[in-house]
Amino acid sequence: MAMAIDTLEEMIKEGLPGCSVKIEDLAGDGDHYAAHIIYEGFAGKSRVQQHQMVYKALKGKMGGELHALALTTAAA
């Protein structure tokens, strides 16, 4: 079961209010995405902590509906 780009973007924006998100479908299959996220809340956090915040926003969908997500994160 694939996840729509709109759903993925909505979940990230809901979990990280005020963030800027750009999502790219890497394989055209709705299952392999790259997300570029800029969020003030990432300030002072390590890259691992930033990615954990994104995974938390996805509410357990990673590894299920969403097979692969390459993340690029930055503080605003």
UniProtKB/TrEMBL annotation:
Transmembrane segments: none annotated. Signal peptide: none annotated. Belongs to the BolA/IbaG family. This is BolA/IbaG family iron-sulfur metabolism protein.
